[in-house]
Amino acid sequence: MRVQGDMAVEHVDVVIVGAGLSGVGAACQLQKHSPARSFTILEARDRVGGTWDLFRYPGIRSDSDMSTLGYSFRPWTKAASIVGGGEIREYVEDTASERGIDQHIRFGHAVLGADWSSADARWTVRARRADGHTVEFTCSFLFACSGYYDYDRGYTPDFPGAERFRGDIVHPQHWPEDLDYTGKRVVVIGSGATAVTVVPSMADTAGHVTMLQRSPTYVASRPATDPFVAQVRQTLPEWLANPLVRWKSVVRGFRTYQTARRAPEKMKALLRKGLEAQLPADYDIDTHFTPTYNPWDQRLCLVPDGDLFTAIREGRASVVTDHIETFTETGIQLKSGAVLEADVVVTATGLNMRAVGGMNLTVDGTEVDVPNTVAYKGMMLSDVPNFAFTLGYVNSSWTLRADLVARYVCRVLNYMSRRDHQVCTPLRPEAPGRSPLFDLSSGYAKRGDDVMPKQGSTAPWRMHHNYIRELLITFRRTALHDNGILFTSVSPGAYFPRAGTSADTLAG
Fold this sequence. Notes:
Mean pLDDT is 92; it is low at 492-508. Strand 6 and strand 7 (134-144) form a beta hairpin. Helix 5 packs across helix 10 and helix 7 (238-262) crosses helix 8. This protein is of the alpha/beta class. It is built from 14 helices and 28 strands. The strands form eight sheets. Strands 1, 2, 3, 4, 5, 6, 7, 20, 21 and 24 form a ten-stranded mixed β-sheet that branches. The protein has a five-stranded parallel β-sheet with strand order 9-18-10-11-14. A three-stranded antiparallel β-sheet has the order 15-16-17, with no helix packed on it.
């Protein structure tokens, strides 16, 4: 420890930023595969859960099944595959409690920034506590597990006349606990994953819910409880059922995505067939559920048990495809001339992206321009030493990649210990060519291009949104010491303790 004013500054081997799904998972992997490392988790909120603690809007749930959203080391064993946000948060909290990870979490610590010193081979991390005081920690390795969007504010366009509206306007990211929409007219602006979740949930108690969209999104129904999974769990022992269920989901997702990219017309026909089975015979599918882009140019939205389509069939919800002209005192006037009367308007218009949790990073006094960095294996920043971040797939469950990244960080740490290296620095690729990390045309992805790191044109600076490839090749078969990273020593054995455990050998 060193002294900062009247306070001792704590040093740990690894600081993990964020106690959500990624952060708790990273700590569990570190505890198992790099047990010689000391660590702490800095969490801005007062509870475990991250995303699943932040969002409280009606119907909040995952659009990934729990066999892959759950951790590989703690399989989800309940019958339902698609579950609500509360259940996901409890799962993360239970995982942290069972493994003692909760004892390492500093709640109410919002990380502001971190400064790397090459002379000391360590980071100084600044965090603002809930009481307003700023404190510091030092660490040898900094691991950002805080997702990629702005927790403070969601994305809301400037709607003409919004100030005139006499009803309630709410964004799902900031849902008021006391909002009562019983029997009221609700308009939900948007057509993405949040909108297709909020609409059927609110339709259970609202007078009527209208989903107002500028353009349609591909939407598919999926059972909340997979009959195959239920049967497997009833007939096979847990040690066999768990990996079988997980890999069934992985392969299904992989095949769906590959079909969409390689045979888009076939996928369009399959999606259309599903819609025809769920919606009334005379429903205008072309207008409301047929996008102009190909499947998986933007994320495909899943609705459990077709709840959105049920609400539409029963007349509790409807879809309007049009553009907003202006808000009025009592609703929204559309460019077509139609008016949607409303008591509540929900702006399910998306998120703002924020790289590495919004931390301000400096290396030897020079600020890191994150959007100008190149991501090494989609998890480290070029020219930024001893730093990693978790970034999930756009076409598969977030946790699939979070697990891989955390295990790889353990491999790197163990490699450094065995060779008395204190510093690992990803290098900027010499080859030209930069592209976004997300190959999507979605609004949030396009907005994120200005704040997120980029990827290069060749390995190891390419991020492949392909779990099977990354599992078998990128994070397992490739050498740790390649042409994309530099390992150096400052003072042998000074900061990373040598570790010779079997777990260390396994992870290295």
